[in-house]
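By convention, the token line describes the chain's fold. To illustrate:
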Amino acid sequence: MIKGYQLVFFQIRLLTVLLKIKRFNSVKLKQVLLILIAFFLANPAKANYYCDELQLGWSFYCDPKIQEPEKELKPAQPAAQSNLISEDPLAVMEKIREEGERLNAQAVLNPTAENIRRLMAHKKAISDQASYFADSYRRVLWASPEFDYNLIRPLTGIGSRTFQDLQKQAQNVSLSRLNEQYGLFFFFRSDCPYCHAYAPIIKRFAEKHGINIIAISIDGRGLKEFPDFRKDNGEADKLQVRAVPSTILFDHQKNQVINIGSGLLAQSELEERIHLLTQREINNGL
């Protein structure tokens, strides 16, 4: 921006040139010009007219405009560290959520660059805090094996394969002794296509593990895999059979039944379910 003394110098220079012109040699004109000089000296604020509006430039001692740098936006922090100590954590989390909703609504309704950057800054601050928490959580977990479920059920590739091998070995042992305590009921209907598909599967399972199986027909007609079937004589109602095919395990030592499931099951799934229901307590890891 032009400075006051530069403007005065410019004005005096201009008027001096005019005074030297012959046709301006009259006394009255010179007096007028001197009055103008005095006026200009008293009004240096006219600089804006010459430099800003007329844009005269360096030749007339006008400084170029200096653009003020764009104000840097302060990122919206989800919560100060002191708040986590002095305030209720639930209240702090609620404030963060509300601030996020406010910034999101503001950016959607008035999507200026400033509003969008503020929303981005808020989300970044939350992501940074979440990353910090996740890293801290892992470090504590690694140092606290009593809380590491990966020791009970490994999730890594080699750990998972080892776990499955151990499970298979335990399953084979339990199924090899299945006939000492259990028998199977197989409920079916002769007009059920899934029963026809399941019959050879459950028969192979019974033969492989040496377990007795009793096939009971709801509609009184049999299947080729079980020519020595029984007609339903109220067993289905007593055991609450609601769909076919249905597989039920009978514990003749405890005189109780265990519902294995309804529908068409693969042999591996049938083995897994029976092992799980007969050898393991709920949430008992291995």
Remarks:
- Residues 113-142 form the longest helix (30 residues).
- The two ends are 82 Å apart (CA to CA).
- The chain has three domains: 4-60, 81-140, 159-279.
- The longest strand covers residues 182-188.
